[in-house]
Amino acid sequence: MRGSRSKDTKPELLVRGLLRELGVGYRLHRKDLPGKPDIAFIGRKKAIFVHGCFWHQHGDPQCRIVRRPDSNNSFWNRKFEANLKRDETNLASLFACGWDVLVLWECELANTDNVKPRLRDFLS
Ligand SMILES: [Zn+2]
Predict the structure, then answer these.
(1) Looking at residue 1, what is its pLDDT?
(2) CA–CA distance from 120 to each of 14, 60, 117 (Å)?
(3) Residues paired with residue 47 on neighbouring β-strands, in sequence order
(4) How far is the CA of 63 from the centre of ligand 1 (A)?
(5) Taking the mean position of all CA atoms in its chain, how far away is CA 96?
(6) Torsional sign, CA 79, 92, 116, 26
(7) Which residue pairs, CB below 8 angstroms and at least 24 apart, start in 23-31?
(8) What is the four-CA torsion angle of 29, 30, 33, 34, rounded to 10 degrees?
(9) From residue 40, how far is each of 12, 23, 31, 98, 111 by CA, in Å?
């Protein structure tokens, strides 16, 4: 089974490609930061999480990817709750250390024209 924190997912690779287009350097999966952000900019104290809509149960009603599994509900609900709690804790820890955090959702990456300006704003 795929882990919720698998590395080098397609959405992540997409974001990295956009960052290269913007010409900014980044670090990946820094273990010394809360939640091991998918992408981190150490000098700027900024981090990006690229969330899979299913694993992180994207709450946006517009989201076309997120769904609840059909079977074994209690197992999945526990798993999703743990994921969400971990996400919250990680964000809170990063904020507490003075970091800026941008969360990008898998479904938002369908339109990179929207994502690129957001990345540029976040990093400026
Ligand atoms: Zn989504």
Answers:
(1) 39
(2) 15, 23, 5
(3) 40, 101
(4) 4
(5) 18
(6) negative
(7) 24/123
(8) 20
(9) 12, 14, 11, 13, 22
Beta strands at 27-28 and 39-41: parallel, antiparallel or unpaired? antiparallel
Asked if 112 contacts 18 with a C-beta cutoff of 8 angstroms, the reply is yes
Q: Could you give the CA distance from residue 13 to residue 17 in angstroms, rounded to a whole number?
A: 6
Report pTM.
Answer: 0.86
**78-82 CB contacts, 8 Å cutoff, 24+ apart:** 79/4, 80/55
58 Cα–ligand 1 center, Å: 5
d(CA 40, CA 48): 6
For ion ligand 1, residues whose CB falls within 5 Å: 53, 58, 63, 65, 105, 107
| Amino acid present at 61 | P
Q: pLDDT per residue over 38-87, tens digit each?
A: 999 998 999 999 999 998 999 999 999 998 887 888 888 899 999 999 99
